[in-house]
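One chain is below:
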Amino acid sequence: MKKTITIYFTLFLLVTSWSCNEDEFFEMDRPQETQWTNTTTFDQGLATAYFALNYRTRGIPQMMDFASSGVSQLLPGTSTGAAWNEMYNRLFNQNHSHTNDMWTNLYNAITISNFAIELDQKNAGNPFRLLPSSTDYKDNYTRQIGEYYFVRAFSYYLLVRTFAPPYDHKGANTGTFIPLKTKVPTNRAEILEESLGTNEAVYNQIIADLLLAKEKLPAAYNAATMLPTYLAGRATKYSAAALLSKVYFVKGDYAKAITESDFVITASETARRYELEEPIQAFNKNTANNIPKETILEYNTGDPSVGNGEQTSSYMYWGWIISLQDRDADDFGRGAGMRKSGTNQFTLSYWAINKTGWMADPLKGDYTITDEAKQDLRFTQVYYPLLAYKAGADPFLYETLAAHSKVDKPQIYVDKYFRGGPGDGRYSKFPLIRLADIYLVRAWLRWKSGDNAGAAADLNKVWNRANPTRLNKFTTANVSHEAILAEYIKEMSGEGWTLDFMVGTQMDIPAGDRTNVAAIAPPYSAWKWVVPAAEKSLNPDYQ
């Protein structure tokens, strides 16, 4: 049985000018070289890699994280085409189109990156014969290679955390779950030699790629000398360091996680590279060069001002299942133009709300919104409460859509998507990594190491920007895992990183409001989604 060649073959056609059938491809000892001839064409390949990494996944990682983590609840009586049942009820052995799409597109991004990295390696780091002292070499080519390493690392991280169990802090991590591809095969034999990588090997590859990306990427973009002229969605050395911090955290390598988070936070506090603003400011932008001060890496859905070309061809599609506003919303405030979506299926779980203190006692049926919530800018700006369904009532106070007619209890929605404007709210950008997350992860790492003062300082950084009239809540006496978890839920719900925080801290992944599943304790060996059936049928390593 032969291995699957669909990904390599498809991507090879994207970056070459020749066409042939599958058998001809395997007959060639050395396929024709790519048409990358300069940094401009090289950047086109990079744009395609980013497109596969972000646009084609369209929010699936964020939806899967929110739906399965215990922080969400499933609204009664709702149903869409999404695999909500599999995700919410943790039916790990069920194939569904969303994870299949993730698999295909992330390996597409990896394959393009492998082409670029191999081109670099086989040509002594200068395939276009640029003058090493030139601006084009320093500001474009070197940066582009760094971005290819970053895209490959991020793609592998999304794959390994989806289709393999989390990294076992106390185990050997020798299980094999996903293919580890770092080279471009040139013949049938090389494809057949490929194998699944151990979890240890995959994580090591991610870290190695991110270290190289951090070394090669710039601190910031200079539109005057760098390609392309738009800045949104492109990685910098701080993006690489931030993701490194999160990967080390998940692995349990806490000292290195602190080092990388220090690198990012120092750039924020000393050079003002990033800055904590009011919470809404990270979510209300939809033009490419309007970069939120807090965003370290963003999902660039496109720029409505440039027409209907490639840069406006995608949006956070799955956001309409896990957030309040409709994907067609074009009012970035909360006035008469705000549109509520009947395709919503998930709100904050009462388990999570109980942690935040935003309802009086939701676990016992008291859903009164507390003063704690009303004074927190996160609650008032990027979450939204609605009372139980009431036909014909005020749509800004009650559930009023027929699709939610069975919603019989007050809810708190995530309201972070489609908030950009003015213009088409579908194309609101979305932070993939932001500064508050890094502060909260470092707060836990400091607390774990016994540095309660440092942990409290980090927590207060995040707390103070959301509670400007109630400063410095946290002290060495009240900082704890539970305190940090509560702030993480308030800050990060719906953004795709909740499970990473739980795994990194080695807490039980909670059942939340579910009664048909149990909490899952470390090492979470059962927490992995099934590999696509097509891959398993074609790849003999799965037999």
Notes: The chain has a mean pLDDT of 88. The first helix runs from residue 6 to 14.
